[in-house]
Amino acid sequence: MKKLLLIFLFGTMAYAQPNINPPLDLFVCQMDSGGGMNYFDLTFNDMVMLAGLNASEYNVTYHETQAEAFNAQNAISNPTDYSSVSNVIYARVTEIANTTNYVVAAFNLVVSPLPVVPNLPAIEQCGSIFDLTTNSNLIEGSTDVSYHIAFSDAEAGFNAIANPQSYVSETSASVWVRISNNAGCYIIKEQQLIIIAGQFEVSVEFDAQTITFVAAPEGDYEYSLDGGDWQVSPNFYNIAYGTHTGQVKNICGTTVAITIELTPMTPTGASEQTFTEGSTLADVEVEGENIQWYDNDGEGMPDFPDGTSQPLPLSTLLVDGETYYASQTINGVESTQRLAVTVNLILNNEDFIFNGLRYYPNPANSVLNIENTTEINSVSILNALGQKVITKTVNGNAVQVDVSSLSKGIYFVTVNSGNASKTVKIIKE
Prior knowledge:
Residues 1-16 form the signal peptide. It is built from 3 helices and 31 strands. It has helices at residues 44-49, 66-70, 151-156, and strands at 13-14, 26-29, 38-40, 58-63, 82-84, 87-95, 102-112, 123-125, 129-130, 144-148, 167-168, 173-180, 186-195, 201-207, 210-216, 221-225, 235-236, 242-250, 255-262, 272-276, 292-294, 311-312, 323-327, 329-330, 333-334, 339-346, 358-360, 367-383, 388-402, 409-417, 420-428. The strands form 9 sheets. Strands 1, 2, 4, 6 and 7 form a 5-stranded mixed sheet that branches. A 5-stranded mixed sheet has the order 20-26-23-21-22, with no helix packed on it. The longest helix has 6 residues, at 44-49. It is elongated. It starts with 12 loop residues before the first strand and ends with a strand.
């Protein structure tokens, strides 16, 4: 129930006996929900109308229509908590000892609207002295505005800040704004006060060749790229690939610089592709510019103890089940992310020749053993660059190849039997 304000205006009265005082119109402030339904204590007018009379000798009832009041019908059952929009109520005052002696008087129920004020934007500044009235242009039609440190003070209308145009706050905080209209109805709004920190963090988001600066905490910033003009938008479009320098400045003049590496996106293509024996990297279908193939994703490169990323020539024979990684280079800048493509080789008649092929140990240290159920004519070993480093004639079902002279890394072993050949991958440790 809300009984926020009573304004002493006289309603109309149909006079009979007894001689009562005119009831008062009742006013309340609209509920925060704005739904229009509010609660009145109609019995406030009991003491108004019976002033000067012996209240114990009279009965007071309230009715929604004049006819009901005159006929003593349908008295409002909850006069202390009556829910209503603005309308007219009829009071009937009846002498208990003589029920034919009564009077009916009308008064109004009026719901006054609350002030309409948007949420107040935060006041941000570099120092500790704030002008709390900064957002006063957003407060329209109000007759009284006061600022309070505590919400409870704002609710009670006590302890208003005496110097709202030069309020001192050493830390970011909030004050509470009480806004009242002519009817005495009020709302309370929070006003955030933010002291801008000297330091802030800057990161960058990428979308193709668009750069977006992200500064934290949120606030008003300006942005510059490669020494260009400052702008309020954090977005920069159609940026060339390569290294750039960005700057972000807050309203206090503090500037943070950041180095930006804008690289092309990863090439596109199917992550699994199928080929026949003897196909090379040149046969793999990938969309991009200046494609370069690798045998690793470039992150950690565990296959190479020296930590270098080994490129593969397009002539590299594909190995069944092996994964290869493609980058693209645009305007001399190579993509940092690589597309992974796993190769599947379909069987042909020659594969049956190597159905019993075994090679061990793998990784190999000094000697690589190769065995096959079909006679082996020759064996050749190529490095990751496609260069042939060992060739050996066999003409038998088994052979030992001395690999002790090879450097650590990945190699491709081609086994030849008749007109057929098969390439497998080994690691020299």
